[in-house]
Amino acid sequence: MRTILFPILILLSNLSIAQFAIVADKDGFSNIRDSAGLGGKVVDTLHNGHFVYCFGTKENWINIDYTKRKQELNAYVYHDRVKCVSDYEKIPTLSKYDSVFVKDSIKITISTQPFVRSKYHLTYFKDSPKYIQFINGKQYWGRDGGMPTTEYRSIRIILGNKEIVLPKAATDNLYEPSIGTAQVNYDRKNDILYIQSSNSDGAGSYEVIWRVEKGIYTDRYIAYGF
């Protein structure tokens, strides 16, 4: 019995802290329910690899946020149907507050730059004209209506002899990056890099994760409002 419960307890302990995970079910997909327990209604199905943000457990069920069809949703999934991104091999930084991550032939460099107001079109709330609603017509993260001060300049990845630079779309509308919170994990078996960071000006906190699969940037997921 102990050999069965031990890994489960470790997983539940890991999920006591809010964090990113991916769906990882032996069937290739997992049912998502509106409440914890088998009595909960199945409201969705997520395929393996789908990003979720875990908030902890309730009777072996994990409360998750996720995005699907441009909708932000909340539901429950059984604990052994997901895998924490932090469980994958960690790529360490050169120093605690460095923006360079290195291991073997892998190197990731994250750089930032000041936000230049003149380069962007700002839309203000009509009823609160001091507060920004959109930047370049899109929702933005990192400031709660205020003017951003910093943004990402680039995220560069070296995999052996190959260099990848994440496209601008990967970092669009992400402001106030906190380099010291960034972390990188590597699924060596499937050649997938996960880069994530917790960013904030205080009130406008958010978490972002990017995925680079077999040397190609595929997607990002942003968790916020917690």
Explain this structure to me?
By secondary structure, this protein is mainly beta. The chain folds into two domains: about 1-85, SH3 type barrels, CATH 2.30.30; about 90-225. It is built from two helices and 18 strands. The chain has helices at about 1-15, 170, and strands at about 20-25, 30-35, 40-45, 50-60, 60-70, 70-80, 80-85, 90, 100-105, 105-115, 120-125, 130-135, 150-160, 160-165, 185, 190-200, 205-215, 215-225. The strands form five sheets. Strands 6-5-4-1-7 form a five-stranded antiparallel beta sheet. It has a five-stranded antiparallel beta sheet with strand order 8-15-16-17-18, with no helix packed on it. The chain has a four-stranded antiparallel beta sheet with strand order 9-10-13-14, with no helix packed on it. Strand 4 and strand 5 (about 60-70) form a beta hairpin. The chain starts with a helix and ends with a strand.
List keywords for this structure.
disordered N terminus, 18 strands, five-stranded antiparallel beta sheet, mainly beta, 226 residues, globular, 2 domains, SH3 type barrels
